[in-house]
Design a protein that fits this description.
heterodimer, A: about 290 residues, mainly alpha, MetI-like fold, two-stranded antiparallel sheet, 12 helices, globular, B: about 270 residues, 2 domains, two-stranded antiparallel ribbon, 3 strands, about 75% helix
Chain lengths: ~290, ~270
Amino acid sequence: MKTYNNKAWWLVLPVFVLVAFSAIIPMMTVVNYSVQDIFDPSTRYFVGTEWYREILADPRLHDSLVRQFIYSFCVLAIEVPLGIIVALSMPRRGLGVPVSLILLSLPLLVPWNVVGTIWQIIGREDIGLYGWILNSLGLDYNYASNPRDAWITVLVMDVWHWTSLVALLCYSGLRSIPDVYYQAARIDRASHWAVFRFIQLPKLKNVLLIAVMLRFMDSFMIYTEPFVLTGGGPGTATTFLSQTLTQMALGQFDLGRASAFSLIYFLIILLVTWVFYTAMTHNDNKE
Amino acid sequence: MRLRKSLVMLIYLLFVLVPIYWLVNMSFKSNREILGGLTLWPTAPTLDNYRVIFTEPTWYTSYLNSLSYVSMNMLISLLVALPAAYAFSRYRFLGDKHMFFWLLTNRMAPPAVFLLPFFQLYSAVGLFDTPIAVALAHCLFNVPLAVWILEGFMSSVPKEIDETAYIDGYTFPKFFIKIFLPMIRPGIGVTAFFCFMFSWVELLLARTLTSVDAKPIVAQMTRTVSASGIDWGVLAAAGVVALLPGIAVIYFVRNHVAKGFALGRV
């Protein structure tokens, strides 16, 4: 049992001060901007919720919000099952284990803009392997001009980048299942499906919760990869929330709208993650 | 069954490796060969692209800039996170659970939200376009990450060790540095690696908080477009060099990759 001691706050204080400096002060600035109309540092008016009302009615926000949800949903729908399959196919012992662990980890360690660069190159029909293959098969594939192809490329890129994470998490979940369980299943002549459904899947519940939470969080704030790959185009086909916000804040310097947007954006992520976090800690307490 | 499993694994690994191979392949080609037609391996291998990276000041200084803010960030994150993680793993205190979740909310805050205030905050205090600005900004997600990972490692050290040390007359700082830290050395290594990694791969904040003097490699790479088009060879070589730090240490952390990405919760 942990002892109750409020002096522990002294140990947490440095973290609190540092994170307050890099999170609370900026957050307050955003709140401040979101309720004012600022012409220059000395001329500012309190406008209340006007920016919020304006931004909530903005079709740009609606469009990129819808795109963002579709994107995050697709990412989860592909990566979670695929990650489980890959984890189940991992070798159990021998040299194959470290080799596949290392190779699986590779995409996770690639800098995000290099991920964009890699797929920008490999998808081109003149210098990229995949683009070239697709085009010589007679498919008219061009991620820079066709919205459908751009979407597919961005999705495949994300699957390439992050499925390994789901797979590695599931693999460490699978490793924690004692051999006795499998032996019992063999005695009962359980089918592969039954083993998966009644032994492996329940044990994976916790890691899957974490995987879904992380993948939702990160896919919901994705910026770098599509920015490098397509620049949000063609048109606005692959412009997600972060990019819309960045354009608004730094491109047009539209402080009020961008701040109101920021807060709404942050609230959505906060809400969804809180649900997952509660489920996670709830599980922990039960065990 | 076993054969089918190996086949699935093999196909997936191929899917993972081909794009990386393609980048490496291109980095050894001249631009004429790249644009001249598709070749599966460099027919006339050249190191010219790498020569550009290591001799042109804009390229190699951008690497040094990145390395400097990344190592600063790693140091700051570890220094503040170590005592905090100890507090979370050993004590209950007023608001501990809320504090722990609040830290996580910073890990999930989209960097885009913080762009504007960071830009103004660091301009106001005169840190704009310095590595320390980026290092501090990256603390936003790296400090919570470090606290969470370290807390996981520390909780696996039995509490009896602390108590024995106190009975033996150790003071807290002496116990912490002499006994406790050596015991969680692997955890510190893993945490350092992940702070390094997440700071190294981040583009948006690093690019916004710098302009010329402290330009990081990730920003430099988005600016390879010249009058004659994109310099694909140099871009590929820069990508390969940016990959190297991760690959160099992956062997040592291979069993902890999942743990690190899952904030120590696995």
